[in-house]
Every structure is written in structure tokens, then in C-alpha cells.
Write a structure and sequence with these properties.
The chain is of the alpha+beta class. The chain has eight helices and 27 strands. Helix 2 runs antiparallel to helix 8. The longest helix has 20 residues, at 385-404. Residues 4-19 and 494-513 have low confidence and may be disordered.
């Protein structure tokens, strides 16, 4: 997991700087053809093809192994330093030995499953002089490699890939230190072990879509390996490779709250707090985005396929922001290219382990654990392999269901009465459909199943003048959902106020209001940050709208410009912890005049 540091400037700001890494190429020609969907699918099918989602979900529960994850963590620790610029020739230390070990493990998984998992390096060039090293000499290695294992899909009509990734590279207090120890267990041996475990378990099955298990390098130097992969897929000709979804796993196995966790860094921001049940999913853009839709799909599939099969359930939190404050990860290599990508990370973070803290992240202290009986083996681990296994299960189930399910459809919704919606499904005929509706929360409030009809009505559980969102998915004969469509925005009135996207001409909004509404912020009460949403039926006030945050006695503490667009506009308001707890006023201002105001409660925990 990288930190955005001013010393490295543009390189680590999250921009898709193509100059930083170049000439990405897949070294295995067979894998290269599979990635673009140019292969004979029947050649790669398992002898015993399992397509029942309930069977696969149950087997994921039983087959994901804490012993396997633990063994991989010990192995990754043994390489001592996995900095992308570290030793490539040694067989026991450095990034070269580590990536060869991962490559051979992928081959081992393939050999156990009829040779169906195809393994390759994705190699790319990187000019080490692009990286600003102030203490250590600039590194000299110019060629770097991700390790990938590809499980071919059972069809090539829809060539979309599903990707699960985690970065293997590590760093200590100085990202240029290629010789000192940098065990990188929490960040990010946990994510690497998770990806490897899913490759081991899931290579047994045959899915409709191809799944890519990618172990990336260079994340700590600016998402270099992930950008090489994203750019490679984006620049295939004659068309770029489509991707259904990317699950990035970074800092995935810890349960301890440190002093310096980046906000929102802990479920309860108190040093030493333990959380082994919550899992956070970060993603780009507002609540209408495909990124949030994918996060909702992950949560729905876990709830319906897995939750009743496990003794310790996982509470999935769909986060507002793309990542924690000042932090980033490999999912951000894909989202600028409009690939749907999210980040999985633990609920509690240990925090940055600088020289003045006892926290472990990005320091030599990010080790596996303590050797309490001095036998040379860590017997008290800093990570929780049971928690890591539960996170792997959430990942694996979402990948399996979307890779099994049918293609995404579209939908035309329209209001019939105040809260009855006519839905018409557009796309290939399916045995059944699902319709998801929600209000202003990140989760779906209701998910309806419609069987044997392409046109039907649903009753939404909202009162008059409530804004809500609606989307749909197709289901196959095994009751597996596709990804859900783009959301439409409706309002519970006799006539829809506006409809997004504009597949039909919307009814004209009332001229005096233009459908503009300041919605209650969420969460409320909040600590440090909250999401403020403004609905609008017009674009005409795009450069004339502001939010004013003020105290109860009228003292203005923040003025935020809102580039108001038609639909739902979301603004993350970072309050910080420097203010007193209490009630604050959020006012919507257009052309200098107040339109609406709401109260926000700051807890300052």
C-alpha cells in the first residue's frame, strides 16, 4: 500500500503516467492469446465442470485454508526484502527469488488441476532515474515483472476478464533501501497470499469468463506493475480487452488499530482496538458509479451465498472514498481507464511505522510476528490468518459468481403511480431478472426477483417525494446474477422528475426548483468525514453552486464549490478532528442565495 509523498511528486499522485513504465509484454504467448479471448475454449475445460453456484460457494468455504495462507506468509517473509529494485539473482533473498517462488507455486496449482491454469510473467521497463532517491543511490534495475496465472473461460463471445490482484513488493522506512530488511507482511504479503490461495482453490473450476490472478510489483513506487497490466489490456488491438471487475487486495490480514492509521483507519479509532469481523471496500466516484455497483454486488453475493455457511460472518462496509486519506493502491491503475476496480482492505490498520512511532507499516517492523519461545519460529503473529481467510472468501465468491453469471443487461424504468415502477429489461432473454432499489445509502434496500417476464412492476418502499435509485441484473437457470446495470434515478411522484441516464426524454422539471435538493449527509453523526449529496434536474447552475459549512452561530468554516450536474452530485467533506464536537450547518448556495440547509453532527471520536 503506497503513501502519497511530496518527495516523489508526480510519480505517486495516482495519475496514469504512461512514461513511468513502458513496453509491457506477456512472456507466455499462450497466455497473451487467452487474455484477448483468441483461443478455443473447449481445450481448457475441466473434465468435471461444476456450474452450480451453491456447490462452488460451499466448496470455497471448505477449501480456503488458513494453513495454506500461513505457509505462504512464512515463505514470503523468508525473502527478507521484496523491494522492486532488490536482488534478482539470489535464490533466497530479494524480489527475484520471491517472484520465481510465486511463479512455481502457480505452476504447482496448475499441475494439480489438469494444467488448466496458465502462468506467465508480465514484463515491463522502468527507468530507475524516474524515481527520486535522496539517501540511497538510485537503483539500476530496468526490467521488472508481475506474475500472473490465467484461468480461461468456457466461452469467448464475451471476452471480459475478471482480475484479482495484490502487490508483492515491500519497503521499509526508505523506499529506496534495496538491501535492508523489508519483510512487508501486512503490506502486502497478506494480499499476495490471498491471490495465491484463490488461484489454488479456484483453478479447479471452469467459469464462463476468464479469471486473472495477478501478483504485481512496484506498487510502493507508484502502482507501476498494476499500471503496466492495465495499460497492456487497454492498448490491445483492434479493441482493448474488456474487464468486468478488478478486486485489489492490499493490507488484508491485520485486526489491530495503530496510532497512525490513515483516516478512516480504524472502525474505532482507539489504539489497540481489535476488529476481526469488518472488511472495507473502497472505490471511486459517487454512489451511482459502476464502482459502487460492483461493491454492492460483492456484498449481495456474500449475503446470499456465503453468510449462512460460515460460523463467523464478515461485515462488508462499502466506503465512500476511493481510498484512505493520502493513501492509494493498485485499483487506481485501472479506474482512470474506466475499468471497474475496487480495493479490499482490513477494517483496522496498524499505521505508518515512521521512526517516531511503534506502528509497523512501511517499516522494518512490518514483520510476521514474535518468537516468544526463542525457537527461531514466530509463534505470535501480527496478522490473523482466520481473518485473512474470511477476506479471501469474500473475494473468491464475488469472482466466482460474476464469472459464472450471464452478461449484463440494461433496463428502462418509469413510474406508474407514486411508488410503483414499471421495469422493462433490455438484452438477451433470461429465465429471471433481479431489480435492486435503494435510497440515499450505499446498500440496496430491496432486491426483487422477477421470473419469466421482460416487463413488470415493482413497489418501492419509499414515501412521496423520495429520491431513489434502481438497477437490474439478469439471472441464468442456476439463479446466478449478472452484474447490475447502471442505476437510474427516480423520484416517488406521479411523474418522474428526471431519469438518468436519458434513454427517454425526461418530463420537464418544475421551473422554480429544477429538481434541486440538498440531501442529508451520511453518515450523520460523523467523525472526520461525511458524504454530502445534491440532486439536480439541470446542468445550468454548474458554475454557480457552493456548499457553505458553518457553526450554529453563523461562523463560516468551509466553502466548497459544487460543479452541479444533472443527477446526483456527491461531495466528500473532510472535517478533520481539530473542531469541537457538536452541530454544524451545511447550506446549499446558488448565485449567492441560500437554497436549502441541513444539520450535521460531528462526534470527534
Amino acid at each position: 500500500m503506497k503513501t502519497l509523498l511530496p518527495v516523489i511528486g508526480l510519480l505517486l499522485t495516482g495519475g496514469h503516467d504512461s512514461f513511468a513504465q513502458s513496453n509491457p509484454k506477456v512472456l507466455n504467448a499462450e497466455v497473451a492469446t487467452i487474455l484477448i479471448g483468441n483461443y478455443t475454449a473447449s481445450v481448457y475445460g475441466a473434465t468435471n465442470v461444476i456450474t452450480d453456484p451453491d456447490v462452488i460457494a460451499a466448496e470455497l468455504v471448505s477449501r480456503i485454508s488458513t494453513d495454506s495462507l500461513k505457509a505462504d506468509l512464512f515463505a514470503l517473509r523468508s525473502f527478507q526484502n521484496r523491494n522492486m529494485f532488490s536482488d534478482t539473482s539470489s535464490n533466497t533473498r530479494g524480489i527475484g527469488a520471491a517472484r520465481r517462488w510465486v511463479y512455481n507455486k502457480f505452476l504447482q496449482y496448475s499441475n494439480t488441476n489438469e494444467g488448466r491454469l496458465k502462468v506467465s510473467y508480465l514484463q515491463f521497463d522502468y527507468d530507475p532515474h524516474s524515481y527520486n532517491c535522496t539517501v540511497y543511490p538510485s537503483p539500476s534495475i530496468t526490467k521488472h515483472s508481475n506474475i500472473m496465472a490465467v484461468l480461461p473461460g468456457s466461452q469467448t463471445v464475451n471476452k471480459s476478464l475478471i482480475i484479482v490482484e495484490g502487490h508483492i513488493d515491500s519497503r521499509n522506512g526508505d523506499p529506496c533501501d534495496v538491501n535492508g530488511d523489508a519483510f512487508g507482511i501486512g503490506d502486502n504479503a497478506t494480499g499476495t497470499a490471498l491471490v495465491m490461495e484463490l488461484a489454488r482453490v479456484m483453478s479447479k473450476y471452469t467459469f464462463r469468463n476468464t479469471i486473472v490472478f495477478s501478483v504485481n510489483t512496484g506498487e510502493e513506487q507508484g502502482l507501476l506493475g498494476a499500471k503496466a497490466l492495465a495499460n497492456y489490456l487497454n492498448t490491445r488491438t483492434p479493441v482493448r480487452v474488456p474487464i468486468k471487475a478488478v478486486n485489489n487486495n492490499d493490507v488484508s490480514g491485520g485486526i489491530f488499530c495503530g496510532h497512525t492509521a490513515s483516516a478512516p483507519g480504524c472502525t474505532v479509532p482507539v489504539y489497540g482496538n481489535i476488529d476481526s469481523s469488518d472488511l472495507r471496500i473502497f472505490s471511486k466516484d459517487d454512489i451511482n458509479s459502476p464502482y459502487k455497483q460492483w461493491a454492492r454486488y460483492i456484498k449481495l453475493e456474500y449475503k446470499e451465498q456465503i453468510r449462512n455457511l460460515v460460523q463467523v460472518p464478515t461485515n462488508i462496509q462499502i466506503m465512500e472514498a476511493e481510498d484512505r486519506t493520502g493513501r492509494g493502491g493498485d485499483h487506481q491503475a485501472f479506474s482512470p481507464l474506466n475499468y471497474t476496480a475496487v480495493r479490499f482492505t482490513q477494517a483496522n490498520e496498524d499505521g505508518n511505522g515512521g521512526t517516531n512511532t511503534i506502528d509497523r507499516q512501511h517499516s522494518i517492523r512490518d514483520s510476521l510476528g514474535l518468537d516468544k519461545n526463542h525457537d527461531g519460529i514466530e509463534d505470535s503473529l501480527y496478522v490473523d490468518v482466520d481473518y485473512l481467510a474470511r477476506n479471501a472468501l469474500v473475494n473468491g465468491n464475488s469472482l466466482a459468481m460474476v464469472a459464472l453469471g450471464p452478461d449484463t443487461i440494461t433496463m428502462n424504468p418509469s413510474l406508474v403511480t407514486a411508488n410503483r415502477v414499471r421495469v422493462q429489461f433490455v438484452g438477451a432473454a433470461s429465465p429471471a431478472y433481479r431489480v435492486a432499489v435503494r435510497s440515499t445509502t450505499n446498500d440496496w434496500d430491496s432486491v426483487y426477483t422477477i421470473t419469466g417476464k421482460t416487463v413488470d412492476t415493482v413497489v418501492v418502499p419509499y414515501s412521496t417525494n423520495s429520491t431513489f435509485y434502481i438497477s437490474a441484473a439478469a439471472m441464468d437457470n442456476n439463479n446466478t446474477e449478472s452484474q447490475f446495470s447502471t442505476e437510474y434515478t427516480l423520484k416517488t411522484t406521479l411523474v418522474p422528475l428526471y431519469l438518468v441516464p436519458d434513454t427517454t426524454a425526461p418530463a420537464p422539471p418544475p421551473p422554480d426548483y429544477y429538481g434541486i435538493q440538498l440531501m442529508p449527509n451520511r453518515p450523520n453523526p460523523f467523525d472526520e468525514s461525511t458524504m454530502i449529496a445534491v440532486a439536480s434536474g439541470t446542468d445550468i447552475f454548474a458554475d454557480r453552486t457552493f456548499l457553505i459549512i458553518s457553526t450554529m452561530d453563523g461562523r463560516i468554516i468551509r466553502r466548497i464549490k459544487v460543479p452541479l450536474k444533472k443527477g446526483i452530485n456527491e461531495i466528500v467533506y473532510n472535517h478533520g478532528f481539530g473542531m469541537l464536537a457538536g452541530i454544524y450547518i451545511c447550506s446549499l448556495i446558488i448565485d449567492g442565495l441560500p437554497v436549502q440547509s441541513t444539520k450535521m453532527v460531528f462526534r470527534n471520536q
